[in-house]
Amino acid sequence: MVREELEQQRVAFGLEQGISAARPGILATLLLPSAAAPGTGVAMAATWGLMMIAVLLLRLRVLRAAMGLLQQAGGLQRARQDFTVSSLVLAFTLGAFPAIAFPALPAELRMALTVFLCCWTCAAMASLGVSPRLYTGYLVLVLGGLAIGWARADLPQAPSMVAAILLYLVVLRSFSRNFNRR
After folding, report:
1. Residue 141: alpha-carbon gap to chain centroid
2. Considering the chain, what is the average pLDDT of its residues?
3. What is the Cα 54 distance to its own chain's centre?
4. Using one digit for the tens of pLDDT, what is the confidence trace for 123-170?
5. Can you say whether residue 154 is alpha, beta or left, with left for phi > 0 and alpha for psi between -120 and 50 degrees?
6. pLDDT band at 47 (very low <50, low <70, confident <90, very high)
7. Which of 17, 73, 109, 177 stands the most exposed, by the fewest C-beta atoms within 10 Å?
8. CA–CA separation, 172 vs 164, rounded Å?
9. DSSP codes joined into one string, the chain
10. Which position has the higher pLDDT, 103 or 85?
11. How many angstroms separate the CA atoms of 86 and 74, rounded?
12. Structure-derived torsion over alpha carbons of residues 167, 170, 172, 174, reported in degrees to the nearest 10
């Protein structure tokens, strides 16, 4: 009984954090496609931006519904599943853009996108840190997409950037394990 109550509190905390992060995430997402459009083309940047906004809005709806599920008998498993799936879909959408578009971006935008995604994945610990396995999957999808983008950029600094991103992934993962123990 105590274990299930603790798990319900952890899932509720993650859901609440994910809900509160939705609006800032949408606002940040509006800036990135407009900055990327000169390098990737308006169509690619707009498509990714619209996908991100759609995923963030859908995730917000799913997370709010999952909060309601926590109040129902047996709703914990479904709430956890909805939280997991919506988080991984978001991570895949985030990581897809750099994996596909990175070579077309100017150097300044590559660096800005790298910083943006590193900040985003660090901030995601607030909601996903309660589930280190989920957070690890999230990191692999987002930062993996970023690393693939750097590898595809065919630049002399690409191997160093890929190594730094992978090291960052390991550091964030270890922080989330400590975060979860609290």
Report:
1. 8
2. 89
3. 14
4. 998 889 888 899 999 999 999 999 999 999 989 999 999 999 999 999
5. left
6. confident
7. 73
8. 12
9. -HHHHHHHHHHHHHHHHHHHHHHHHHHHHHHHHHHHHHHH-HHHHHHHHHHHHHHHHHHHHHHHHHHHHTTSTTHHHHHHHHHHHHHHHHHHHHHHHHHHHGGGS-HHHHHHHHHHHHHHHHHTHHHHTT-HHHHHHHHHHHHHHHHHHHHHT--TTHHHHHHHHHHHHHHHHHHHHHHHH-
10. 85
11. 20
12. -140
- Tokens read off for 153: 């950029």
Which residue reads 């730094």 in tokens? 164
- Let me know: does 149 contact 101? Beta carbons within 8 Å: yes
Given the structure tokens 């994996």, which residue do they identify? 99
* Other Cβ atoms within 10 Å of 167 Cβ, number: 10
State the greatest distance between any 2 C-alpha atoms of the chain, in Å, as a whole number. 56
Burial of 102 (0-12, 13-18, 19+ CB in 10 A): buried
Query: What's the rounded Cα separation, in Å, for the pair 182 and 177?
Result: 9
